[in-house]
């Protein structure tokens, strides 16, 4: 019962059984009449759309055919992600493009780069929540953290088999599965190789198609390059918002390619063009940290308090030394710092 498709006959039966008080006559009818009975019952109870009736209420469904609400995603990105105009743009473009393609040629692979606390995890959650209501709790969403899930180098062969069988097993149950790999820069090259075939342009592998799946890779790799570029830009007197994607793209792909520690360079993920989008996360400034504090206050049900926000933002450390421009931990410790004040 783990991954129920939209029209699995078993689900219909389950629905009828669960909705028995409403439709106890329907149980003995044939499937088609049952469908009609349910549609009628749905209409009566105000649930006009059949999948919407049981998906989410009775059982979580694999949302392979559900369109993305791009308006909602855009609003979400605009209102809740601070200081990341490039990431906003790329994520929006990537998600709307991929989700509206009926037969994508490969799964979507996003690689998110930037310093800690700049919003990489936050955006991943946002993407997930715009597809599955249960968000990270959804059984179709799988998070792997390198140091937590794959800590021992001696066990790499085991991890490799496990990881491949999980990706295969979950995707065969639900084509719109989402796999998130955090700390990608700490992931063993052997495991990156293990993921590689799933990202490629195959129609299917052993009967399973991966083309509707979504892979999100998070890493700090390239963070220093992004920050240096941002600092140069600032030093030349330009506005942050004028920084364009092309200013970053080159820096990032060349930098990652040549950097020993990026966890990518030897993997062939870049070389074989298996990553669809590199998403740069810019270092956050004082004003962005302040916005994070205000958002956190709202989230906890408090009034917005400018003074308190300034105070908390000022407690963060900023670099480089001579300018004190970028928050060292982005917005990461905002929540904990705020708790000390409340
Ligand atoms: C999409 O999201 C917007 C904003 O959250 C909402 O107003 C609208 O009803 C949604 N559209 C659909 C089709 O769900
Ligand atoms: C799906 O992935 C999870 C890990 O997120 C794993 O525990 C589970 O066994 C996988 N399911 C299948 C059917 O492979
Ligand atoms: C790669 O690592 C080696 C030793 O760890 C170092 O000497 C070399 O400069 C590094 N190359 C790059 C491009 O970072």
Gross morphology is globular
What fold name goes in the CATH topology slot of the largest domain? Rossmann fold
CATH architectural grouping of the largest domain: 3-Layer(aba) Sandwich
Bound molecules: 2-acetamido-2-deoxy-beta-D-glucopyranose
Whole-number average pLDDT? 85
Low-confidence stretches: 1-30
Widest beta sheet: strand line-up: 2-3-4-1-5
**Count of helical stretches:** 15
Q: Pairing-aware structural class of the strands and helices?
A: alpha/beta
State the distance separating the first and last CA atoms. 45 Å
Estimated share of beta-strand residues: 5-15%
- Biggest sheet layout: 5 strands, parallel
Q: Any idea what the CATH superfamily of the largest domain is called?
A: P-loop containing nucleotide triphosphate hydrolases
Kindly state the number of beta strands: 7
Helix-strand sequence: HHHHHHEHEHHEHEHHEHHEEH
């Amino acid at each position: 019962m783990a991954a129920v498709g939209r029209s699995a006959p078993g689900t219909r039966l389950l629905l009828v059984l669960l909705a028995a008080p409403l439709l106890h006559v329907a149980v003995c009818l044939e499937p088609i009449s049952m469908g009609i009975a349910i549609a009628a019952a749905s209409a009566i109870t105000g649930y006009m759309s059949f999948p919407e009736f049981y998906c989410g209420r009775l059982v979580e469904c694999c949302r392979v055919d559900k369109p993305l609400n791009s308006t909602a995603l855009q609003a979400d990105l605009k209102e809740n992600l601070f200081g990341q105009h490039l990431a906003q743009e790329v994520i929006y473009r990537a998600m709307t493009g991929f989700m509206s393609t009926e037969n994508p040629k490969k799964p979507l692979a996003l690689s998110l780069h930037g310093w800690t606390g700049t919003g990489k995890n936050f955006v991943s959650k946002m993407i997930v929540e715009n597809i599955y209501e249960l968000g990270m709790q959804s059984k179709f969403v799988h998070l792997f953290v390198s140091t937590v899930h794959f800590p021992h180098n001696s066990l790499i062969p085991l991890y490799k088999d496990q990881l491949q069988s999980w990706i295969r097993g979950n995707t065969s149950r639900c084509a719109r599965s989402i796999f998130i790999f955090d700390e990608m820069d700490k992931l063993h090259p052997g495991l990156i190789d293990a993921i590689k075939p799933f990202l490629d342009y195959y129609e299917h592998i052993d009967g399973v198609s991966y083309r509707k799946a979504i892979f999100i890779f998070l890493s700090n790799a390239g963070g220093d390059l992004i920050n240096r570029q941002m600092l140069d830009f600032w030093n030349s007197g330009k506005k942050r918002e004028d920084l364009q994607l092309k200013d970053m793209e080159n820096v990032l792909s060349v930098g990652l390619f040549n950097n020993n520690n990026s966890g990518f360079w030897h993997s062939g993920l870049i070389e074989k063009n298996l990553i669809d989008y590199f998403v740069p996360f810019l270092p956050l400034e004082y004003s962005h940290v302040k916005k994070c504090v205000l958002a956190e206050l709202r989230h906890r049900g408090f009034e917005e308090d400018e003074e308190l926000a300034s105070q908390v933002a000022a407690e963060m450390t900023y670099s480089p030394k001579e300018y004190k421009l970028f928050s060292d931990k982005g917005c990461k410790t905002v929540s904990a710092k705020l708790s000390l004040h409340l």
